[in-house]
Inverse folding.
């Protein structure tokens, strides 16, 4: 498995393990690779709110003066956690708005101050903001990143990662 797949699986597991009633994401967490894919996989979700985990790419975290290029690259994986609620429902009642806030809080606390079991680095909160996917839905995105080390295939450390 790749580090990215492991990170996506870890994020999904963390969301499914939320223990903050009334927040329950059982059967409502999906993994997508872009917004179009998210819309497709959300069609299978029976009730809302739901959360889509969207891979938003990787960025370099090279440190000046350190020879990381000899053994691999230091980078961070960025994920968008997209909370999706039915728009026609949320605008009708105050309770639906409060529920969205409860979910966002629970999601934030599930990652905040926690080390990734994959990379052993802390999850980093980047931003939380409203987003639009399509009419009829209201969405919020939390962006999280986590540092990972990607060794060259010829690096002695790559054997460690490939055998784990």
């Amino acid at each position: 498995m790749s580090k990215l797949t492991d990170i996506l699986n870890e994020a999904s597991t963390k969301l499914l393990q939320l223990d903050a009633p009334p927040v329950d994401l059982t059967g409502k967490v999906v993994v997508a690779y872009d917004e179009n894919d998210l819309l497709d996989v959300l069609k299978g979700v029976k009730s809302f709110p739901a959360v889509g985990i969207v891979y938003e790419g990787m960025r370099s975290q090279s440190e000046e003066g350190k020879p990381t290029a000899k053994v691999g690259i230091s980078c961070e994986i960025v994920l968008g956690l997209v909370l999706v609620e039915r728009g026609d429902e949320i605008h009708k009642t105050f309770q639906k708005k409060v529920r969205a806030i409860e979910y966002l809080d629970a999601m934030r606390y599930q990652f905040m101050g926690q080390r990734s079991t994959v990379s052993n680095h802390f999850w980093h909160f980047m931003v939380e903001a409203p987003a639009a996917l399509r009419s009829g839905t209201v969405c919020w995105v939390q962006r999280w990143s986590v540092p990972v080390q990607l060794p060259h295939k010829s690096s002695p450390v790559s054997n460690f990662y490939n055998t784990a």
Summary: The two ends are 10 Å apart (CA to CA). The mean pLDDT is 82.
